[in-house]
Amino acid sequence: MSRHERSARQLPPSAPALVTGATSGLGRSLARALADRGWTVLVHGRDENKCATVVDELRAAGGTAHPYVADLASLEEAAELGRRVAADHPSLGLLVNNAGVGAGRDARRRELSRDGYELRLAVNYLAPVVLTRALRSPLRAAGTAQVLNIGSIGQSPVDPDDVQFTRRYDGMEAYTRSKFALAAFTFTIAEEYARDGIGVNCVHPANYMDTTMVLEAGVRPWSSVAEGTAAVLHALDEGARGASGQYYNESRRAKAHRLAYSADIQQRLTSLTDQLIAPAERAGGTSW
User: Fold this and answer.
1) Are 33 and 22 in contact (CB under 8 A)?
2) Please, what's the largest Cα pairwise distance for the chain?
3) Tens digits of per-residue pLDDT, 2-52?
4) What are phi and psi of 19, to 5 degrees?
5) Domain ranges (residues) in the chain
6) At CB < 8 A and 24+ separation, what contacts does 195-199 make?
7) 27: closest CA among 132, 148, 136?
8) Number of other CB atoms surrounding residue 240 within 10 Å
9) What is the pLDDT of residues 218-251, one digit of tens each?
10) What are phi and psi of 105, to 5 degrees?
11) pLDDT for residue 211 is more than 70
């Protein structure tokens, strides 16, 4: 155990951590690691039974955890998740936007979210935007907080004229477009959120970890979930030391796709995003 981890155990974080997609793979491993560091972990997943299983595991190991069930393929449910967490925990120390959808078993098959949006765009990008914005107040209330977006080294610019990827669809490119958008979102909000004491970073945990997402795509894993977890914890440690607006390739500071830093592209993507999430905003009465 490192000196940092021993210190974290001695001084448990005062505000909880929400980890989306915490019932399997990287999210589950990260939930365990955070609980070991003394965090109260808010375990998000789509399946109530799986959430309960992870919560029971963390509690059995001496940790503190609570389940939160929501399907992030629905932006209204993403917004409602944010409202529930904010109501239950007016102060939030950490949000890890980890839940995601890979290329799928058939990369030629274009799938839709419950809102009728291209599925990878919706789950990997739009839902994190909705959730991050909905939780800004409790993150601000923590005094010092972090948002960590789980990104990918694979990034392809979003086509602003076909944001829903209706032409010449490819599942892997849909995935890399969504991760480009998530990285651009990280850099777009970092300076503004830093004024509220909220650091915002993005990390590519590892190449082709041994997760369901990778196996479904028919790819032989290159890395372990343990390696990915270590990279995420490194990014969190960097954030705790004040890093914000950064992109990490595993445990190294790196550069995301060059266009993710473009102010023009960020502005255009923000405008498109606002249009897409507006129905969820109106339905839930959410004010960003």
Assistant:
1) no
2) 54
3) 433 333 334 568 899 999 999 999 999 999 999 999 999 999 999 999 999
4) -115, 115
5) 3-283
6) 196/136, 196/139, 196/140, 197/140, 197/142, 197/143, 197/144, 197/145, 198/136, 198/139, 198/140, 198/145, 198/146, 198/147, 199/144, 199/145, 199/146, 199/147, 199/239, 199/242, 199/243, 199/244
7) 148
8) 15
9) 666 667 889 999 999 999 999 999 999 999 999 9
10) -70, -35
11) no
Q: Give how far Cα 170 sits from Cα of 49, 177, 209, Å.
A: 33, 10, 21
* 3-283 CATH choice from 3.20.20.70, 3.40.50.720, 3.10.180.10, 3.90.950.20: 3.40.50.720
Beta strands in the chain (DSSP E): 17-19, 40-45, 64-69, 94-97, 145-150, 198-204, 247-249, 252-254
How does strand 94-97 pair with strand 145-150?
parallel
If you ran DSSP here, which 8-state letter would residue 144 be given? S
Answer whether residue 156 shows pLDDT above 70.
yes
Query: Residue 106 burial (CB < 10 Å; 0-12/13-18/19+)?
Result: exposed
CA 113 vs. chain centroid, Å, equals 17
Catalytic residues: 175
